Amino acid sequence: MDYDLWQICADVTVVAKEAGKLIRNAQPTASTTKSKKNTTDIVTETDQAVEKLIRERLTARYPSFGFVGEESSKAGSEITNQPTFIVDPIDGTSNFVHGLLDVCVSIGLVIDRQPTVGVVYNPFHDELWSAVRGQGAFTSRHGSPMQKLPLVSEPLGGLTSACIGIEWGSDREGPEFDLNLHVFTTLARTQASGGRFVNSLRCTGSAAIAICRVAAGQQEAFWECGCWAWDVAAAWCILVEAGGAMVDGYPDNWDPAIDNRRYLAVRPGEGQREFVREFWSVVESGMRS
């Protein structure tokens, strides 16, 4: 069946901006975050309210489509070939709690398990990223005209000149966390001490925003192992349509599944495969140690 993907993207954008208003109006302040319990309650209530709004709007407009949301779906929920909206109502919840502004609504549509439409919206900066498969990716801020991505498209150098996004995640023990530590320290250390001495490492606190910045060419890469499909589905479409690449966070899988949970996003530009191989060599060295 053929779908009007541009119309779907337009409808999703309207819903994302409506959801963004809820988020902007609900962000905790110093007066509402006196206890961890209060903060947790606010985040949970807002997450659920935003996802409920998104679900109601999209299922009313597209009743035959599936829906997978962070708040309403169990971890590991199966994503089928059915057209399915994959939604993170608030990506960047820790930022949201602490009054930081890297927070977004992330709504992706996958068809045959392939990212097909992506909309990521930051309500605090009024910043929008969107894409339709085969039609390019675009961004706008404060209502400005849409700009085609990437904003920067120079050849990729090696790791030493790269700005790389990373995240610590919430699971901070066990072999996977040990591998994360190895990768982070190897990227950061000087070459004289056995590292790669990358130009900079960035923790954005939102996988979707970080990947969109990679799509724009503002960062060379983003690497995270342990996030879920709702963290990446929308931004994945934006990245690929901008000319970027999404590969497995672990070596040698150039075509990861949407629910792979390990991702390396690389910006547009010549030299992607060489960059990926160099990054994978860091991961592989940690897997051997």
From TrEMBL:
What PANTHER family does its record include?
Answer: INOSITOL MONOPHOSPHATASE, INOSITOL-1-MONOPHOSPHATASE-RELATED
**Name of this protein:** Inositol-1-monophosphatase
Instruction: Give the family per the record.
Output: Belongs to the inositol monophosphatase superfamily.
Q: Which Gene3D superfamilies match?
A: 3.40.190.80, Fructose-1,6-Bisphosphatase, subunit A, domain 1
Name the UniProt key words of this record, in alphabetical order.
Answer: Hydrolase, Magnesium, Metal-binding
Its domain of life reads Eukaryota
Any keyword Metal-binding?
A: yes
Q: Which residues are involved in binding Mg(2+) 2?
A: I90
Q: Which residues bind Mg(2+) 1?
A: E70, D88, D91, D231
Show the PROSITE patterns listed in the entry.
Answer: IMP_1, IMP_2
A Pfam family this chain is assigned to = Inositol_P
Q: Lineage of the source organism?
A: Eukaryota, Fungi, Dikarya, Ascomycota, Pezizomycotina
User: What pathway is this protein a component of?
Assistant: Polyol metabolism; myo-inositol biosynthesis; myo-inositol from D-glucose 6-phosphate: step 2/2
Keyword match Transmembrane helix: no
